[in-house]
Design brief:
14 helices, about 350 residues, Rossmann fold, six-stranded mixed beta sheet, disordered C terminus, alpha/beta, six-stranded parallel beta sheet, 434 Repressor (Amino-terminal Domain), disordered N terminus, 3 domains
């Protein structure tokens, strides 16, 4: 009688597919297979057609690299340290998703630590990651003030620090996209949310907003400017300061929030006060997190390609570690305006347009 598990047992007894197995299958040397699958410097001399054959054969044969043996042989860990402000927030999770995607496709691992803007914790965790054999660091929303021991790439880190590559959004372009959009809709009385001081983007973004507003002839009025005091990563971030803004009883037809999360909280507070978005107040966010598109109304925002920024950070770091690219101090990323239903023409402009049509 045949055992029902015979097939599974046979599969378990099959010899493990090794580099030598793939090499013999293709009639190539194990070194050629290893160079291609590890994307090492030696792979540059291998024809692209051969590389594709190797990758296809490894997949067909279900080749699984022995990372432990590789690490021992090369005395490397193929591990990156990711230092994040928070892992569950919409911003950080998208950046880390891009990092993970790139590292996984290049057979690297990563260890993550969360510092929540505690500088002492930041230094402690960096040292802990070094003792665990990481080969480099990627940081997100982290203000680095001194050189780390290993090659480092910072996503949204603006300080110029030796050996650190900053992957940053062009905030001047972002501010111009947002304010030109609001001005084009007839908004002159615009309220602003300033980011929390510990946020790496806060100072750079606010400086860009103020400079661009001056160039466009838009007043940044203190009575319409609110400072975010919380580090909350939910819409609660924008809810209380919008209520405080409304208590000042100053007219504004548009609100440019520091980020999407605070903008979504602002919309809730405006509605509670009996104001319609966008009929009474247009609201604009920043980041284009997934919730922005599904908010009601859909949130007009300035898009940061966060996952792409994570992938760029991972590629930049691996290239540094592998010695395939030179150090660069900064990589600038272009923003994009995403117009949805939370912005419309200013009420006064709509009234003037309607009056013109009526008189005609």
């Amino acid at each position: 009688m045949t055992s029902p598990n015979k097939k599974g047992s046979a599969q378990k007894g099959e010899p493990r597919v090794t580099l030598k197995t793939v090499a013999e299958h293709l009639g190539l040397t194990p070194g050629t297979i290893s160079a291609t699958l590890n994307n090492s410097a030696a792979a540059r001399s291998i024809p692209e057609r051969t590389k594709k054959r190797i990758i296809a054969a490894a997949k067909d044969l279900n080749y699984r690299p022995n990372y432990f043996a590789r690490s021992l042989r090369l005395q490397r860990t193929y591990t990156i340290g990711v230092i994040a402000e928070e892992i569950g927030d919409a911003y950080g999770s998208l950046v880390i998703s891009g990092i993970e995607e790139y590292l996984r496709s290049h057979n690297f691992f990563f260890l993550t630590v969360i510092h929540r803007h505690d500088q002492t914790l930041l230094q402690t965790y960096a040292q802990m990651l070094v003792t665990r054999g990481v080969e480099g660091f990627i940081t997100t929303d982290t203000s680095i003030t001194q050189k780390l021991e290993l090659p480092t790439v910072a996503v949204a880190g603006h300080g110029q620090v030796e050996n650190v590559t900053n992957v940053v959004l062009d905030h001047k372009v972002a501010a111009r996209l947002a304010l030109t959009h609001l001005k084009g809709l007839g908004h002159r009385d615009i309220a602003f949310f300033k980011g929390h001081p510990v946020s790496s983007d806060s100072g750079e973004r606010w400086a860009a907003v103020c400079e661009t507003a001056q160039e466009l002839g838009i007043a940044v009025r203190p009575e319409l400017t609110m400072q975010i005091e919380s580090t909350n990563s939910t819409p609660e971030l924008g809810y209380p300061i919008t209520k405080q803004l409304l208590e000042r009883k100053q007219h504004f037809s548009a609100l440019f929030a520091y980020n999407d999360i605070s903008a979504i909280g602002a919309i809730w507070a405006l509605r509670e006060a009996g104001l319609r978005v966008p009929e009474d107040v247009s609201v604009m966010g920043f980041d284009d997190i997934p919730a922005a598109a599904f908010n009601s109304p859909g949130l007009t925002t300035v898009r940061q390609p966060l996952e792409q920024m994570g992938r760029i950070a991972a590629k930049t770091l691996i290239d540094r570690i592998e010695g395939t690219a030179e150090y660069v101090a900064e990589i600038a990323i272009e923003p994009e305006l995403v117009v949805r239903a939370s912005t419309s023409r200013a009420a006064s402009t709509r009234a003037l347009s309607a009056a013109a049509v009526h008189s005609a």
